Amino acid sequence: MADDIPLQPDDRFLIERMLAGDSAALDRLMSRYDKLVRFAIFRISRERCGKDPQWLDSIASEAWAGFVQSMQRTHSEWPASVGSYLVRIARNRCISAIRGESRRPVEYDIEETSAADQIQVPVEDPADVVARLEETEALRGCIESLSPDEQRICKHIPAIMDRRWRDVAAAENTPESTIRSRWQRIIGRLSACMRQKTGGNFAPKASRGDS
């Protein structure tokens, strides 16, 4: 079944395939999110990871097992953000293990405030970091779907945000008016792609009144 998985499948498609028994779909989800899961675990249990090299692998494996079990139980209920949901599972699994409650079933939708006085959780919530990383990854995928010429213009996004149209035009050896026109089309395509991937838009727009 793995042969008919699209090149860039969305999370819903992969979860449905995973629930149907397609191990390749789970592999694709893990390829997409395992680094985020491990990042969340490391942020919460940095010292434990340093003392026990196997700790991170163990908790990450348990987090993925918990995710699969959760999806099998709910089946038709989908998390708004798979990445954030996985991070919440990883955090709960990590907190439970540190508190010596590894044998007790973990509820993945609970608040972790009860453990806050026992475990030092970073001020910056890993789920917030994950949300930003997910958006960045989605935008990268959207840019890769553009034509080579459009991708080349996207390399100048910092300059475009600074309204340095002349610099971009000079670098591309293309009239400034053409760069501006292409950028507007790029914005439209990226916004449509981001809506499809995340439900949000690609917000940056160059200001008018620029040089």
Please characterize this protein's 3D structure.
The protein has helices at 11-19, 23-44, 46-51, 55-74, 82-98, 126-144, 148-154, 157-161, 165-172, 176-198. It is mainly alpha-helical. Helix 1 (11-19) crosses helix 2 (23-44), helix 2 (23-44) crosses helix 5 and helix 9 packs across helix 10 (176-198). The N and C termini lie far apart (54 Å).
Fill in the keyword field for this structure.
211 residues; single chain; 64% helix; mainly alpha; 10 helices
Brief sketch in words of this structure:
The chain is elongated. With 211 residues, the chain is an all-alpha fold. The protein is built from 10 helices and no strands.
Order of helices and strands: HHHHHHHHHH
Distance between the termini: 54 Å
Q: β content, as a range?
A: under 5%
Structural class comes to mainly alpha
Say how many strands there are: 0
Roughly what is the average pLDDT, rounded to an integer? 77
Largest sheet: none
What general form does the structure show? elongated
In angstroms, what is the radius of gyration? 21 Å
Task: Please work out how many helical segments DSSP would assign.
Answer: 10
Q: Helix fraction?
A: 55-70%
Low-confidence stretches: 105-124, 206-211
